[in-house]
Amino acid sequence: MVNGGSMKTSAATLAVTRVSGLTLDVVDLDAARKFAAALGLHTADKGDGLVGIADDGSGITLRGASRRRLTGLRFDCRPGDIAALVEAALAFGTTILEQGDDALMLDGPDGIRLDIRAARAPAPRHEALVLPHAPLHSQAPAARPLALSHVAIFASDAPAALAFYGTVLGLRLSDRCGDGLMFLHSGHGGDHHILALVGSTTSGLHHHSWEMGTIDAIGLRANRLAEAGHARGWGLGRHVLGSNFFHYIADPWGSHAELTTGLDQVDPATWEAGDHDPVDAFYLWGPPLPEGFIANAEEHDRTPALADG
Ligand SMILES: [Fe+2]
To answer: How far away, in angstroms, is 71 Cα from ligand 1 center?
Structure first.
């Protein structure tokens, strides 16, 4: 794998560098708080909800509401890029909700609020995929999420969302399975995907993925989640597109938390996007795909007739 920090991108490249947060409305805030803690996030009350923060400061904001809904995504950009991002948004016809010297808020596809903040470039990824030597069980590491890795969202018009995220935020297609699944990386390079778009009839959240650093940390955290009553999901396995190891755990608000590591590192100058058959490209190995894994909980919320589908 290539270190994302060593890649050269044109000085003219305009792109967000990473996804650093997501905001959700959830029905049961107490269950959400317990799950975020079991996931290993540092939790704290905030306003009418709470935050769950990974070691690097990225994280999830959860607010109590009458129905679950993905309401916002947060991205980082390089210092000094806000003005050019404003220009790109205006040229695309995007509504600017707020604008400051080092922050920008846009009305994104499906009404998702996009909060962009100038920040230092992400730290190079920790690349040891395994602990070099298994410690005693009693001395196992904490295995907390190091960072928010990526977010996979449902889009009511996935090709239109691809056009938006490509033109306004500078994300580039890494790989796709037709219009059903698209993986996007930053134009500055780095992780194979910071955002994935899943074709649907409404917006929604499929999964929030956390960089764990090692396969051991994935296993240790999955054990802790199981001990806290969260064993249902899909994993351990390895994806083909992105090459990452995965272990998905069903969260209490109808999507999945993915514990991951080992994403391919993309050099935008040489990467060629592929269009793949999902049967061949979804995963290399792992347990059988659970029924309903791709279901959009928000779609079910809005169309009760499909709730059992
Ligand atoms: Fe993922």
So the answer is: 19
State which amino acid sits at residue 57: G
Cα 33 to ligand 1 centre (Å): 22
Cβ neighbourhood burial of 270 (10 Å; 0-12, 13-18, 19+): exposed
3-state class (DSSP) for residue 220: helix
How far does residue 79's CA lie from ligand 1's centre (Å)?
A: 27
Q: Give the Å distance between the CA of 210 and the centre of ligand 1.
A: 9
Axis-axis angle for helices 82-92, 158-167 (nearest 10):
140
CA 192 to CA 194: how far, in whole Å? 7
Please give the class, per CATH, of domain 16-120+146-301: alpha beta
**What is the chain's pLDDT, residue by residue, as a tens digit (309 residues)?**
444 444 555 657 999 999 999 999 999 999 999 999 999 999 999 998 999 999 999 999 999 999 999 999 999 999 999 999 999 999 999 999 999 999 999 999 999 999 999 997 776 666 788 888 999 999 999 999 999 999 999 999 999 999 999 999 999 999 999 999 999 999 999 999 999 999 999 999 999 999 999 999 999 999 999 999 999 999 999 999 999 999 999 999 999 999 999 999 999 999 999 999 988 889 999 999 999 898 998 887 765 444 333
Check: CB of residue 204 under 8 Å from CB of residue 297: yes
Residues 6 or more apart in contact with residue 144 via CB below 8 angstroms = 40, 41, 42, 54, 55, 221
147 CA from centroid of ligand 1 (Å): 13
Ion ligand 1: residues, Cβ under 5 Å = 209, 258
Structure tokens, 165? 């995220």
Prediction pTM value: 0.93
C-alpha 151 to ligand 1 mean position (Å): 7
Question: Alpha-carbon distance 108 to 106, whole Å?
Answer: 6
